[in-house]
């Protein structure tokens, strides 16, 4: 009996209130399951922390658990919708790079239809005189180009979604783009 290929679900949803996180992740997993995949969320590690652990120790345990979860997956689908700024969540970007570095396919999506430069104010330089990249891409070139080079694709919503960080139709496009 063959097992479903595993997909790591990267994104800022881990920072959402528990109910919102659960609704989104449940829907993502349902879509993947219907297509023959198993979705794994970073919170599926179910870590328990002791009262004597420092915040740094907890952080390293989360990192190691998520790294092991990524190692067990065949690919990643990443929510790259800008989070806490004009770019994707930095942890999510790390996870995409980690998976690509292992030779695994990365698929991404953003619910913000604006290019990186437009989100940066459509200027050539910021207030400090630093160049703002202009490659007509959804985010920093290393993110989108890395995804494409992995055999994946970055899907960008054509308009704002009802929910700021999730759209089932766009996520299904991502799932259908996975290599079988």
TrEMBL record:
<protein>
    <submittedName>
        <fullName>Nucleoside 2-deoxyribosyltransferase</fullName>
    </submittedName>
</protein>
<dbReference type="Pfam" id="PF05014">
    <property type="entry name" value="Nuc_deoxyrib_tr"/>
</dbReference>
<dbReference type="GO" id="GO:0070694">
    <property type="term" value="F:5-hydroxymethyl-dUMP N-hydrolase activity"/>
</dbReference>
<dbReference type="InterPro" id="IPR007710">
    <property type="entry name" value="Nucleoside_deoxyribTrfase"/>
</dbReference>
<dbReference type="GO" id="GO:0016740">
    <property type="term" value="F:transferase activity"/>
</dbReference>
<dbReference type="InterPro" id="IPR051239">
    <property type="entry name" value="2'-dNMP_N-hydrolase"/>
</dbReference>
<dbReference type="GO" id="GO:0009159">
    <property type="term" value="P:deoxyribonucleoside monophosphate catabolic process"/>
</dbReference>
<keyword id="KW-0808">Transferase</keyword>
